[in-house]
Design brief:
The complex is a heterodimer of chains A (401) and B (375). By secondary structure, chain A is α+β, with helices and mostly antiparallel strands. Chain A has 2 domains: 209 residues; 146 residues, Alpha-Beta Plaits, CATH 3.30.70.270. In chain A, a hairpin with a 2-residue loop joins strand 2 and strand 3. The two termini of chain A are 90 Å apart. In chain B, helix 2 runs parallel beside helix 11, helix 5 packs parallel to helix 6 and helix 8 crosses helix 9. The chains are: A alpha+beta (401), B alpha/beta (375).
Chain lengths: 401, 375
Amino acid sequence: MAKGKSRFKGSGAYIFAGILIGIIYLVNTFLVEGIYWSNTSVSQTTSTVMNSLNKINGQLSEINNDSISIAAGLKTDMESIVKDTNNRYANIIDAEHAFESVEGLSDTAIRRYNYAKNIISTYKQRLDAMGTGAVTSGNYEEMGYILKQDIYPMQITASEMLTSTIDIVSADTGKIMRKNTIRSYLLMTMMMIVAILGEIAVWIFAKKAKKARLELEEREKSLAEVDAKLKTTRQKASDLAIINVLTGMKNRYALDNDINDRLESGRFQIAVFDMDNFRSINDTYGYDFGDEYLAAVAEKLKEEFSEVAEIYNITGNEFCFVFNKNISESQAMGIAQNIQRVMSSPYEVLNLAVQLPCSGAVYHYLPGDCLNVNSLLVKLDTAMRNAKMNGGNMISTVMNI
Amino acid sequence: MNRNKRKGIFRAIASCTLSAMMLLSAGCGKPQNAGGPNGAQGGPPPKVAVITKQQLSFWDDVKKGAEDAGNELGVEVLYTVATSDNDYVSQVAAVKDAMLKGAKAIVIAPNSTTELNSVLGEAAEKGIKIVNINSKVSEFDQVETFIRSSDTDSGAVAARGVHKILEEKGADYEKLGKIAIIGHTASTAEERIQGFIGVLTSYASHNITRPKVTETDPDKLAEAEKAADEEYNSKLEKFSKNFIQGDRVAERDQARDEALKLLKTDGNGISIMFGTNTNTTLGICDAVSELKLDDKIIVVGFNSDEKELGYIRSGTLNGTVIQNPYVMGYVGVRYAQKLINGMTVPCDLDIGATFVNGSNMNDEYIQLLLYPDKN
């Protein structure tokens, strides 16, 4: 059962187990019923046999008593004795029929009974012969011989054979009963084993199912982990593509991505700034210094303006500010002046305080002004270049044409 | 989860079924009580030793009866037969063997009335039940039961058989010739002879007529009565002298020789011959048929050897007394079993004897006695 069960997976196993238990239950019921009925019928048979044999034996013994009474001269009314004897013999015949109607007796029991029956019928013949012979002629001596030598031994032999038959039937009954008892114990044991095995099978199956589920969960979990890792990696990779490594600000591509969709219908303030003559820093102090300086400027810008604008480091020292939506045109202008002030304030880089002026351009972008980010930046750059050409350190505005 | 839910349902079904099975198996216990206390107890069947006298068909029938009882009643029968009817030595050995093998009872037909007493006493000390069959051991009081056909009565049955033949022939007891008896060497022979003579004499006393007294004179009446008594008594006296007995013999040849000695060549005035066992009966028949005296001499004997039945069919043997050795063996073992189980049995059981002759030997009952295994 356990094997059969574990072979099945999923709900099939449960249905199979259910059906199996049902069948076992039914078989068990039928077997128990069988044992019960077998015992009942054996009891009935035994009681019929006992009754009939005891009746024969009893009647036989009474006939014998009568015969002895005649021989001893105790009874003299022959007519009534003959009547009694005939009645008793009729009872014997009835009991014989009752016994013979019982089915399923063992051969030994029937053999022993036939022996008794044979003796009884000869006994009756001798009795009748005595009745017509010695008794009628009043020959008490002859009567004595017949009783002592023929009739009495026959009666006790018949009686022994009858009681033996009873013993045989009892022994047979005992055997069947014992067999049934053993059968019922076997059945009980079998059922217990089946039940225990079933329980064990259920337990093992449940355990296995639990294990499988845990394994699956484990796998899902690790899969999710891998997925997350992959996502992080991908994020990093894409971050690298849109972030300027030096300043940690978003780059040109990011800007492209961020505002490209807004060009057609968006309305926003945007500004660009860069140092005037930043090259002099690189030329004077070297590129490393220039990089440090830029980083410091960028850090400061993030600190000051990241709340009002998204800041991009679009080229070397050029920063682009996309102002938040709630920033108005005039506010943008104010902030731009602040940006210029912050950018052109002195920065201490590698123990050197350096200060560079900066120029910028502000653009009040209206929907549909530009077809793409590139042309937007060109507009801004052009405006900023104008400012620089006019001496720098100033903010120009992109003219809306 | 759907699976969890299904599992829960299955668990519930499983536990319900399990408890139902528990209930059911508890119910299994009930019917077996209905069996009642009948039947033998478990364990190996008790052993009963059956020890008989000698290798003869009579003892074969005892064995059959004992074995049938053993099979039917769940007893293991250990059967031993001695070599001859005075061989008590091998019977002593058999009793000892029975004790060794752990027999619970011994059914014995002793070949000696006293020689087995000490070994049987030893067995009885060990709690082994002693069942005595066929002939009695004397001076021994530990026999639980004695089962046999009374030998005196069996002799009487032979005498009744003879009387019936004489009656049919219309023979006159007064003119009856000699009645020759050849007995065998065992104690049973004497009892059979005693029964035979006693009952035949009794029949004679009824059949030999006392002379009728016709005297009318009252003075002479007493005298006449006395004379009649005397005549009657002398007739009986004469009848009792008819009985002659040969020497006790054991073998058939010896019996034949003894019979020939008694019969001489012409029958020697013998009209009835009686043999007390198989061998003496056969010896008598051998002699009678050898002398061709079959028609003149009434021969009655004992037992039902196939050769004896042959003599009945041929007419040499007029009748034979059969006991019921099968029942003796059967009841012997049955009583042994009862005693082992602590039940009481009669101290003395006479299973009777039957006279078999040519006219009744095919009766169903006689056939049952002659061929117990045909039943």
